[in-house]
Amino acid sequence: MAVAQGEDTCDGKPEDDFIDLPDGCYTEEMGKKLTRLNIGRCHKGQCITSILSNAVDCCDAWPKYCCTVNETKPLTINCSSFSYVISKTATCKCRECSTITQISGEVYGMQNGSQIPLKSGEIYIKGQLAGETNDNGFFSLTVSSDDKEIVLVVKNDIEQKFMDTMKSIRISEDSNTPIKIVAPLKPKPVLFNSNLGHTLSLSGNNRDAFSHLSFPSDSFVTEDGQPFNGIVRALVHFIDPRNMDDIESAYGSVSTIGEDGTELPLETYGMTNYVFNDEMGNTLKLNSPVKYSIDASKLNISLDDDGNSDIYSWYLDMKTGKWVKSNRFQLKAQRSGKRRLLSTATLEVDLPPQQDIKIKETYTKLTSQKTVVAYTYYYTYYYQYHNGDRVGRGVRTRTAYTTNVRYVQTRAEKDRLDACVVAVKVYQDTSFQLPLRTPVTVTAITYNPLNQKFSGKDTQVTNENGIACLTIFCDQNVTLYAQQSQTPVDLITSNTHSLPESYARTNINKNTRVMFEAIESYYDPLAEKYSPVRFYNERSQCLHPRRDDYHFQFAPLVRPELFSPRIGEETIDNILSWYPDAKDKPERRSCFVKVRVTVSLMCRIKCYT
């Protein structure tokens, strides 16, 4: 790449970024009073400049350069009883990035509808201790901006109430990615004799069990590989796909990587996580396969003409946070006729024994001083998370407003295309006019009414335009919600959203969630817009629409702070303070009400909380 001397690829002219001023405030520009103004912004995209010219090609070895603010211009904002100054971006310039990438949020479990914070828990990334949660379950980590996705392992809470859990987090580069992690509480331990084996029923919330784990006799060994004879203390956590709370605490991301490198959604039929100890608390391991069975009649599972199911067991790759296909469930009952719904049949699969997996990762980076720095990480894990899933079946897709039927072209894995994506946009406030630039975590949970269970969950972070496109399953029921880091409540939904008039949806949970049926993709020729649900292979068009296509809308309950009060944020011990806690404290939570009263007589106003 050739760059002319003294030039760079960053456009010096800022992009438009309009903001609305608070009521009663304005700025003067060319003799006019403006209540909406363009403060400009630099797109922060990677760039190249002539100072990087040398024998080394333009490559990722160089420190990252971004298009950032070069010059600003002060603007005075006048209000009825005070004024303040904000900065307007005047020019942009390509320079070495100075921003940091962070992950912050909270870890908690659910018990009888209440949140239980995970206190003083350790958080690991790539086998290294990266941070801890505080007494309220909050944490904040600085991570490498080179990673697009981070695998977090949370364990060893001080109260020993929680099972170890693992989450795959898509991060927002050079900004703070907000997350909330629902961790599983430890179940009641099950005791059995290792010489006799044991069969354990799996269910959640006291519902009828539909699956079982069978541990064979003489199948446990100590950490040094010696046969174990005695009482096994088993902690087995099961994620029941019929329960919403269970799905929200699902391990990893409910997805896998296809043969062509594409991430594919999985429809879950339950997840297990087990830990074994002896009566003294010493770790035990399985050295024989475990039989995992599913009662197909309770989940309306069907077979093909050859008597095969399309459900496999999967193990969780702790390095990538994705599920890896293992063995296929086999029918262990008589059947007759062609493809039919099973009534009493059982599907079984052998889960492989736990194996130690040793990982060595080396990262090499060339600094601005042309010094090569190498980082090497060593860590060990063993497979303890298992999942029963299927990849989505192939389906036909209909084009709206016509009778034509078209087939979506498939790649190596033809079964992916009953997956869809749904478009969500987060705004600065409930006027739903301006997109929120800071990252927000949006979650979609899909429910299959045919099987009467939840199919899967996807969590995404909004981009710089406030847009997130979440993976769901077509023609199933979907629940959407959005959350910001370290806030006590979810964002609220729009009453109307940006949807066709006939599009059925219901706002629930005090307007913090929206439910709808994922009607397959279509184009509205009258409005010249695409539907909020699109096919999975149209995800890029969903993230970067050419027009203002239909989408679901969320926004914070309060407007973003666009000005500073006369008592600054650093003052927290005054009766007029806006916040009871300092800005850097994770407990910083406040709500405010603004009241304007116009009366002709003196009056007294009281506020009750």
What can be said about this structure in brief?
By secondary structure, the protein is an all-beta fold. It has four domains: 18-96, no CATH class; 101-182, Immunoglobulin-like, CATH 2.60.40; 190-356 and 384-390, no CATH class; 414-555, Immunoglobulin-like (Sandwich).
Q: How would you summarize the topology of this molecule?
A:
Blueprint lengths: L17 E3 L6 E3 L2 E3 L1 E3 L26 E14 L4 E14 L4 E11 L2 E4 L4 E4 L2 E5 L5 E6 L5 E7 L9 E6 L5 E7 L7 E4 L4 E5 L8 E5 L4 E3 L8 E9 L4 H5 L6 E3 L5 E15 L5 E4 L3 E6 L16 E5 L6 E6 L1 E2 L14 E6 L4 E11 L5 E11 L2 E7 L5 E2 L6 E2 L12 E8 L14 E8 L4 E9 L5 E7 L3 E7 L8 E2 L11 E4 L4 E5 L5 E2 L4 E2 L2 E3 L3 H5 L8 E4 L54
Parallel strand pairs: 7-14, 33-44
Antiparallel strand pairs: 1-4, 2-3, 5-6, 7-8, 7-11, 9-10, 9-12, 12-13, 15-19, 16-17, 17-23, 18-22, 19-21, 20-21, 21-22, 21-30, 23-27, 24-25, 24-30, 26-27, 28-29, 31-32, 33-36, 33-43, 34-35, 34-37, 37-40, 38-44, 39-40, 41-42
